[in-house]
C-alpha cells in the first residue's frame, strides 16, 4: 500500500483538527477576557475569596492557541518527535478538562452553598461602597431580583436601619424614593419580590448538565487529535518519510 497518500490524508486531517483546536483556544481566551470584564461582580459573590477563574481561562486559551499553531507546524514539518509532543499536550488537556468537568458537576451543590454564604454576608454587611456591595447592586439590577430570598432579607442588614432597602432593588428607579425604601409597607410595591439566590441557583441547575456535556465533548475531542498525531508520527517513523 502506498504510504504517501495515507500520510497526506492524515496530515490534512490533523491540520484541520489543529485549526479547530486553535479556534477553541481563541474562544477560551475571549470568554476569559469577557468574564473578567463583565462577570467580575458575579464571580466575587460566588467565591469566598477573590478568584482567578478568568485568568485561568485566559492562560489556558493562550496556551492552546500556541500549541494549536505548534500542531500545525509539526504536521507540516512531518517531525515525529514534534507530533509526539503535540499528542502529549493533547493528553494533558484531555485530563485537565475531564477533571474540571467532573469536579464542577460533582461539587455543584458546594458551589451553591458557597454562593448562598457569600451573598448572605454581602447583604448583611452591605454599605453601598465596597466591592461586595457594588457586586450586590449589579446583581440585583441586572437580574431584577432583591435580597437573598426576597426583599425581607434586607431587614437584618446593617444598611437597612438608616437607609432602608438599596435602590438597586427598585423596578422603577424614577418612582422609588428613599423614604419609601425605609418603609417596609411602601417598599413592598416598589421593589422586586423574587430573591437573587433562587434565580442564580435555578440557572445553575438548569444549565449544569449542558455545561458538563459540552466540557466532556470538548475533552473527548482531544482523543481524535491524539490518535491522528500518534498515527502520523508512527507512519512517518516507520517509513522514514521526510517533508522536503
From TrEMBL:
Q: Name one Pfam family in it.
A: Tetraspanin
Disulphide bridges: 146-169
Keyword line = Disulfide bond, Glycoprotein, Membrane, Transmembrane, Transmembrane helix
Membrane topology term reads: Multi-pass membrane protein
Spell out where the chain crosses the membrane. Answer: 12-35, 55-73, 85-107, 208-232
Q: According to the lineage, what is the superkingdom?
A: Eukaryota
Task: State the PROSITE patterns in the record.
Answer: TM4_1 (PS00421)
Q: Which family does it belong to?
A: Belongs to the tetraspanin (TM4SF) family.
Query: What is the name listed in the Swiss-Prot or TrEMBL entry for this protein?
Result: Tetraspanin
Provide the species name: Perca fluviatilis
Amino acid at each position: 500500500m502506498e504510504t504517501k497518500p495515507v500520510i497526506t490524508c492524515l496530515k490534512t486531517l490533523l491540520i484541520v483538527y489543529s485549526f479547530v483546536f486553535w479556534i477553541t483556544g481563541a474562544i477560551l481566551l475571549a470568554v476569559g477576557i469577557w468574564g473578567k470584564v463583565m462577570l467580575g461582580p458575579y464571580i466575587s459573590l460566588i467565591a469566598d475569596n477573590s478568584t482567578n477563574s478568568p485568568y485561568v481561562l485566559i492562560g489556558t486559551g493562550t496556551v492552546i492557541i500556541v500549541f494549536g499553531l505548534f500542531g500545525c507546524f509539526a504536521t507540516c514539518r512531518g517531525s515525529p518527535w514534534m507530533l509526539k509532543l503535540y499528542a502529549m499536550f493533547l493528553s494533558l488537556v484531555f485530563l485537565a478538562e475531564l477533571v474540571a468537568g467532573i469536579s464542577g458537576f460533582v461539587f455543584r451543590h458546594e458551589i451553591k452553598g458557597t454562593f448562598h454564604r457569600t451573598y448572605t454576608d454581602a447583604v448583611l454587611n452591605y454599605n453601598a461602597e465596597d466591592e461586595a456591595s457594588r457586586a450586590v447592586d449589579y446583581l440585583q439590577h441586572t437580574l431584577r431580583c432583591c435580597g437573598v430570598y426576597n426583599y425581607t432579607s434586607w431587614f437584618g442588614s446593617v444598611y437597612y436601619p438608616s437607609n432602608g432597602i438599596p435602590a438597586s432593588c427598585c423596578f422603577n428607579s424614577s418612582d422609588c424614593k428613599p423614604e419609601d425604601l425605609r418603609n417596609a409597607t411602601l417598599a413592598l410595591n416598589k421593589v422586586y419580590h423574587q430573591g437573587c439566590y433562587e434565580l442564580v441557583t435555578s440557572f445553575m441547575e438548569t444549565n449544569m448538565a449542558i455545561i458538563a456535556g459540552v466540557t466532556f465533548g470538548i475533552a473527548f475531542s482531544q482523543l481524535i487529535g491524539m490518535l491522528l498525531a500518534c498515527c502520523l508520527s508512527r507512519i512517518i517513523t516507520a517509513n522514514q518519510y521526510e517533508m522536503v
